[in-house]
Design a protein that fits this description.
Length: 104
């Protein structure tokens, strides 16, 4: 049997400054939004993060559009049926792709 007891991390995760900037937008999303996927893995492995995957209870594509608009980037609907959108932005000299989807 596998033990699923959480193990404390040996160090704090290192996030790009964009994550803090995105936190300022949370009131505009209308519901909590969560960072998931490869960015979490990369932060655990202390790798550079250039793309972010976010999930939200509703309006994923709308949240991606808000991000694109706030940072002067581009918005692309990726999957209207599943409510997934992508924002491509430049932040502090780095290009980021941010995919936002609704919970499944």
């Amino acid at each position: 049997m596998t033990d699923l007891t959480p193990i404390p991390l040996p160090r704090a995760l290192s996030w790009p400054p964009l994550v803090a900037a995105l936190q300022t937008l949370t009131p505009k999303f209308g519901s909590p939004i969560y960072l998931v996927g490869g960015a979490v893995r990369d932060a655990l492995l202390n790798r550079a993060v250039h793309d972010l995957d976010l999930v939200i209870a509703q309006d994923g594509a709308r949240a991606a559009r808000i991000i694109a608009n706030e940072f002067g980037g581009a918005f692309y609907p990726l999957d209207a049926e599943r409510d997934i959108g992508r924002a491509i932005i430049d932040f502090e000299g780095t290009r980021y792709e941010i995919d936002v989807s609704r919970f499944r």
